[in-house]
């Protein structure tokens, strides 16, 4: 069974987040395990909290000044996916970059049942290629386990890139990595005599 896109939980509120993080110095973070999205981050008022440590794990935001990120986070949403839910399908329009905060995503080329070409862990992102070139998406992105993602719309991404040299560099590096990975797949398929799409 295939599920298309998870449930948008709510907007991220930086003002509440700052108060929450400041009032919760004893958070139960696990060092070395990437981003930890903890139970106390989701509260009775429906707000979802992300602290600066969570954001430092997101590759695209590495080296970006906190002042730049804070204003733009208010424009983002949090998305939750259950295992096997499909976030992105090929040949569709996409204007959102998704940053994985917790969980694991699989990328498939042919179908959701085919072998994944890559697994993504917290801190990594998906959707940036279709945002940059405005072409349809080229792969299936599926939740391998329960996932929490920060969804950033195209206009917000470009505002971030314009405001931060570090973000622009990180985006370019991410796109180059994607290209090199695609080249490696094509080379491997040529060696094995497999046709590539």
Features:
alpha+beta; 6 helices; disordered N terminus; five-stranded mixed sheet; five-stranded antiparallel sheet; 197 residues
Offer a concise description of the structure.
The protein is an alpha+beta fold and 197 residues long. It has helices at 14-22, 52-56, 66-73, 128-133, 154-163, 165-192, and strands at 3-4, 7-11, 77-81, 85-88, 96-102, 105-108, 118-120, 125-126, 140-143, 147-153.
Protein described:
The protein is an alpha+beta fold and 197 residues long. The protein starts with a strand and ends in a 5-residue tail after the last helix. The protein has 6 helices and 10 strands, in the order ββαααββββββαββαα. The strands form 2 sheets. A 5-stranded mixed sheet has the order 1-4-9-6-7, with no helix packed on it. Strands 2-3-10-5-8 form a 5-stranded antiparallel sheet. The longest helix is centred in the C-terminal third of the chain and has 28 residues, at 165-192. Mean pLDDT is 74; it is low at 1-11 and 13-45.
C-alpha geometry: globular
Strand order of the largest sheet: 1-4-9-6-7
Approximate strand percentage: 15-25%
Give unreliable regions as ranges. Answer: 1-11, 13-45
Oligomeric state of the chains in view: single chain
Overall mean pLDDT stands at: 74
Helical content band: 25-40%
What's the gyration radius in Å?
A: 17 Å
Number of strands: 10
- What is the number of helical segments per DSSP (H or I, 4+ residues)? 6
Distance linking N and C termini: 25 Å
